[in-house]
Amino acid sequence: MGTGKIASQVGHAAVLGVEKSRKFNKLWLESWFYEGQPKIVVKVNSLEELMEIQQDAEDLRIPVIIVQDRGLTQIPGGTITCICIGPAPSDIIDKVTSDLKLL
Q: Domain residues for 27?
């Protein structure tokens, strides 16, 4: 994916994460919102690693969203491009993501 495509997918993830968090844990969402809506973008080496991280986050009861592309531009439809973890307290998210490198 090109840089713009990655940015777009991350944007989708952030919006979908907020929508899920409205139903999942409003206190976490409100806290995140008033802290300036921090977002950290990290990378993985494979789809398998991404799915393991998703499962780890779900095991900790953190909201997770999987983003799949529609296939209108650079990649085939249905391709999983990224996930959103949270909004949630950073100390909980760090249990899942602290070993990942920044994008």
A: 3-102
CA distances from 82 to 1, 6, 46, 90 (A): 11, 9, 11, 19
62, 25 Cβ separation under 8 angstroms: no
The overall pTM is greater than 0.85: yes
Sign of CA dihedral 8, 16, 75, 42: positive
Residues 6+ apart with CB under 8 A from 59: none
Q: Tens digit of pLDDT for each residue in 28-38?
A: 999 999 999 99
Whole-number Å distance between alpha carbons of 91 and 72? 37
CATH number, domain of 68, equals 3.40.1490.10
